[in-house]
Amino acid sequence: MCNTKVNSPKMCAHYWGFVAILMVSVFAVGAYGGSCRESSLCCNGRDSSCVVQKAPLNAIIEDLNDKPCYCDHACLRLGDCCEDFKSHCGVIDCIVSEWGPWSECDTACGTGMMSRTRIIDQKPQNGGKHCPSLVQKRGCQGLKCHNHHDRKVLRETALLLPADLSKSRHENDTSDIRRNLRLRYKNAFKHNRGNEYCIEFEVIKATKACHRDKTYNALAEGDRVIVRCDLEALHEDKSAVDTEISNNSIQDEEDERQQERKPKFRCRGEGLTGRSTRFSSLALPSCRGKWMRVTTKQLKKCSTIEAQFIFV
Q1: How far is CA 111 from the centre of its chain?
Q2: Rounded to whole angstroms, how far apart are CA atoms 99 and 119?
Q3: Is 209 helix (H, G, I), strand (E, B) or coil?
Q4: Which tens digits make up the pLDDT trace of 61-98?
Q5: What is the CA angle 55-59-62, rounded to 5?
Q6: Residue 309: burial class (beta carbons within 10 Å; 0-12, 13-18, 19+)
Q7: Residue 88, SS3?
Q8: I want to staple 93 with a disulfide (CB 3.0 to 4.6 A). Which of 34, 129, 153, 275 is the partner?
Q9: 68, 52 Cβ separation under 8 angstroms
């Protein structure tokens, strides 16, 4: 305190001038205090003047707790709010319930999806945090298939190679060391080229490696591809038998029993109609994905020109 009786009037004038400057420097930028409530501050949007100075403006801050904090809604994004900003300014974050139980797999047989949900207990107010996702999904495998054979087929992964290799196989038919064997058993299923067939698939998902490789870039999401089943890829399916009987012929019980005992041949990974299964390139293992068989049970013939890939 400056006393004019003790000090000169000039010294007192300098003293009160210094006090005035100090007070202006403290209160010009923001309130001086410890919280938004104490400073009576609460500002909408972004307002740099809505600040609480916990220490004098030009003071050296040694404790991080003495750093300025803000009472405007922009501080929620910048992370520099005063501790009581939300409670004083009525900011309420979204509150959601715990996750509910997982649903049943949406596919009875084969690959499908299951989900679970949660609800909003408190909606956000005054710029509070937005609500997180209310639905969560994950893959599942439906096991309620009609029989063991279907489950086995749906678990298989089709191994693929370019269809150009199929042409090479056919060109080698005349010089192959197994030519005599095929001619000798030309009526047998495994030695009759007429039993080869093609299956059409619709690609559901494929890795980036497929997109980058010119040989496999036909495996793009949403596109359809034709895969040929050559004799070399056929294998006997011991879990199923070919029980189809021609409608144009009359067979006695003995013929029917022989027909039922006839083995069924197929390619691994050919899947079931309308079901999703997996595929993978034999030459490029990083190229893999999921597809759905479009071709019905009535298999179709096709040339090597029509097919883009072959089963292995």
Answers
A1: 15
A2: 8
A3: helix
A4: 666 667 888 888 888 888 888 888 888 888 888 999 99
A5: 80
A6: buried
A7: helix
A8: 129
A9: yes
